[in-house]
Amino acid sequence: MRPRLALLVLMTAAFVGACFNHVVARMSPYHRPKSRAAVSVWDSNDESSASPQQVHVSLVGQDKMRISWITQDSAPPTVEYGKSPGVYQNSSTGTTSSYKYTLYTSGKIHEAVIGPLETNTVYYYRCSSDSSREFSLKTPPAQFPIKFAIVGDLGQTEWTKTTLQHIGQSNYDVMLLPGDLSYADFYQPRWDSFGRLVEPLASQRPWMVTQGNHDVEKIPIIHPHSFTSYNARWRMPYEESGSDSNLYYSFDVAGVHIIMLGSYTDFDPSSAQYKWLQADLGKVDRTRSPWVVVLLHAPWYSSNTAHKGEKESVGMKASMEGLLYQARVDMIFTGHVHAYERFTRVYNEKADDCGPVHITIGDGGNREGLAKSYMDPTPQISVFREASFGHGQLEVVNATHALWTWHRNDNDEAVEADSTWLTSLSSNPGCKV
């Protein structure tokens, strides 16, 4: 079958399926699952105090990756890597740090940047010269198609484990997480538990994250600094994008420019984040990056009654929505509200063919449960909404078309409940920048 015909068939099938799913969701009763217990992943008795744990990888520039891991005792911050199991032709030595939070002292936090790496290639690696634990990672492709897994508000429950299982089966290239990672909420060992929980996936594919309200962990007088744990454990490539903060940054991968914004740091027009965003959007070359995607935590559009009217949503939208609209951002993914909702292309509260598609994906599986109360009637700009745990997949097929699907965790099966084809704004003659 010819490529154009194949794409047309896929789009038609997806459109019919999306319409069917939308009608079924509106007409059929869906019995939402109950909450599930919190989980904790503790140290293995078989591991030495110098054994690497909580391993995760992230993108650094076009052809490098940062490997991050923790040991309980001192160990060299060295990563050895190669294309065959047990054969490491290359090595990189990085840095070691730690932090204190009230009475808690972290383990030794190591990170090293490896590369240059070939695209779409599997590498095997070990950390701190520990031969007992070998890991593997796959680099993203250099060109379309590319597949993203997207989910927010993960936490650590049995539902989280189900979500992670489904994501692991999706054959994704890059994970995007719009805030609220561990739900440690000041209890620092929960950060360690979260690192162990996600390691099987986060050590194999790049995880790119931004922060949420549960990651702030500021205590007046006792611990007056925000994001101590988040910044120490989940360092993102902010310097490479000209940012002065780990709380907001951007990166490019396979023709997609992705911007991670901070809902819980200054965002008014005089702020460093606003000025950085303005400069970053001005540098985007839509011939090289035809898609622009933004992630932040607190949603600007939501018909759920949870978290309505918060300054992080209302104030940030007032400051930055015009910037993103003028730059023709294609999609904005958020968390915070523990449910799923997809809006049509929208700007200034109204449907707009040149506005971004807003999607709330704060349904990873956190311990606080689902946000089940929605506004009635449904706003016309809200296309699909459902209070269920799940995850999303964004498959960018080429410079003009991408397929978005949302999969609910239905009886531990990843059931596709919502899907739609999207066309890039850069290919729309009426939406030229």
UniProtKB/TrEMBL annotation:
The record's catalysed reaction(s) read: a phosphate monoester + H2O = an alcohol + phosphate
Q: What is this protein called?
A: Purple acid phosphatase
- What residue stretches are annotated with the Purple acid phosphatase C-terminal domain? 355-413
Q: Which residues form the signal peptide?
A: 1-18
Tell me the superkingdom of the source.
Answer: Eukaryota
Q: Which CDD domains match?
A: MPP_PAPs (cd00839)
Phylogenetic placement of the source organism? Eukaryota, Viridiplantae, Streptophyta, Embryophyta, Tracheophyta
The UniProt record lists the Purple acid phosphatase N-terminal domain at 52-139
Q: Which cofactors are named for this entry? A: Fe cation; Zn(2+)
Keyword Lipid metabolism part of the UniProt annotation: no
Q: Gene3D superfamilies annotated for this entry?
A: 3.60.21.10, Purple acid phosphatase-like, N-terminal
Which residues, by range, are in coiled-coil regions? none
The record's family statement is:
Belongs to the metallophosphoesterase superfamily. Purple acid phosphatase family.
Calcineurin-like phosphoesterase domain boundaries: 146-340
Q: Which UniProt keywords apply?
A: Glycoprotein, Hydrolase, Iron, Signal, Zinc
A Pfam family the protein falls into: Metallophos_C
Q: Which InterPro entries match?
A: Calcineurin-like_PHP, Metallo-depent_PP-like, MPP_PAP, PAPs-like, PAPs_C, PAPs_N, Purple_acid_Pase-like_N
- The EC number(s) attached to this protein equal 3.1.3.2
The record's listing under PROSITE patterns reads: PROKAR_LIPOPROTEIN
A molecular-function term among this protein's GO annotations: acid phosphatase activity
